[in-house]
Design goal:
Length: 612
Amino acid sequence: MKPYQSFGRIEPRKLGCTVLLGCLLVPVILIAVLKSNSQSFAILSFQLSIRTYLPLSTVEESNSSEQQGLGTTSLPLASLTDEHRENQSIEGEEITSLPPPFKEEQLKNNSNAGGITTVLNALKEDRGRDESIPDKETTALSLPSQGKQGGDKPDAGFEITRLPLKEKQGEKELAGVDIAKLPQNIHLKEKPGENSSMTDNVMESSHASNEKQEQNLIIAGNPIQQRKLICDYSGQRSDTCIMDGDVKVLGKSSTIILVSSSGPNTSPESTTWKIRPYARKWEAPLMALITEITLKSSADTKQTPHCAVNHSIPAVVFSTGGFLGNLFHDFIDVLIPLFITSRQYNGEVQFLATNFNSQWINKYQPILRHLSHYQVINMDTDERVHCFPYAHVGLKSHKVLGIDPSKTPNGYSMADFREFLRSCFSLKREVTKRINKQSRKKPRLLILLRKGSRSFINAREVIATARRVGYKVITAGPEETKDLHRFSQIVNSCDVMMGVHGAGLANMVFLPSNATLIQIIPWGQLTWACRHDYGEPAPDMGIRYLEYEIGEEESSLIAQYPRDHAVFKDPLSIHKQGFTAIWSVFLNKQKVKLDVHRFRRVLLGVFQSLKL
């Protein structure tokens, strides 16, 4: 018998086949394993308002439309073509078709909306120009150092711990979506379970798998289970600190002291942190104007001042400086964050404000009184030492005109915030109901009329067109909006609100659920920024959103620049010059002359959606 010329008595040809088969199987197995365990990264987007569009000091923020566990659907940024529209005809005219109104029972749950159809750019026409929008552009900028520790080293009685965060799973952007195939109704989820434990709150944020950046939690306390002071500098919108124990507030000196329990391992030396309690931390020039609060932890009770006023309730410290006075910023920078932070106490909480703005405090008394049963303390002038068992310094802020229920103590959502506003201002309408076609009742349309920049040149023509369509038209200028209590009731009485992009559209928070918001977007490739401010928050409020981007002929800029100017040919080149150029050209000097024949189709579509 001829001996085998191989190892292990295996023929060389069989051995070669085995090796080849193994080489083919290994990559297949690896691909399958990697695919099952892979995570997609969230597409980052600028956090901005139109007031700070593409600022130099912009911080990265996860897409604000992203909702954990919610299948939110939106159309791509490119304009819709005719095949992506559902066209209907009224008297031979093409109209914009909106999704049917949300079912009333779907709007009763207090959670964010999922499965939304957002109708965008429904009438934007292809004029052969570049319609691209830099929606995926991001800029990673380093934040200014925050001076988290004032001393050379922490006290012996305190431990500093940094807790890492994991990557956040992102959402894939949709492209080429057919509007007819998108979900048509809001499906609200049940409210998450309550979680009021301070330990649970901290550990949930520190170990959650759905965070993208490295967390910089500074925990003071020994051991960690007995933590007394927690400063979180990881938030993208705000820094916050929590002080639990013997808290002494020295208002006029902008200092807060936490007296720790003495022990054999404690040191009388203080450990110091700094914080500016305003929810716009990425804008360094603005934050420099916000009073800086010094937080100290000390075991030396003899060195701390005696209490002049003892409180048995928690304290919440925030600033009324910054951009306050602008309705949009009033809500996103303070009012919504204040609701997130303090609503859990049911009024038994004391507010302390730095950069005290008495006019702002008076304007929002209906809201502040419902959040706190006590008068706001002016930290700028109060020389007394106020003592508290617990204190929040800074306000939690999640996103523009929105709340992430998973990050709130009791699972509060924007539905809860809007219900809260209805109680503050005695707003009667919770839901907009469709009107029978046989009824003589007309849908109510509120038109916001700006003065100066971004105002309607042909306002009378727009109003007349809306009336001919069949609306009961209500108009409101700057004077009518000053009385917040009265104007909130006017907004709540309407079924549709429309206006050119600006702070006034933030009044959408007072609209009843199922109402429609129409945002007019000025010329200049501002679609993404405008949608970010009002289009993306709308679904969580149960509001249907429609945007109308004007064409060149509808802009007053045609009288200021030749048609071959970069303003028309290459708007993004203006963007690259910085925010000052954007503001000067596209925002501060532009007015709108709506093409009422083109815009009439939008009004007809919304009108039809409100009829049974």
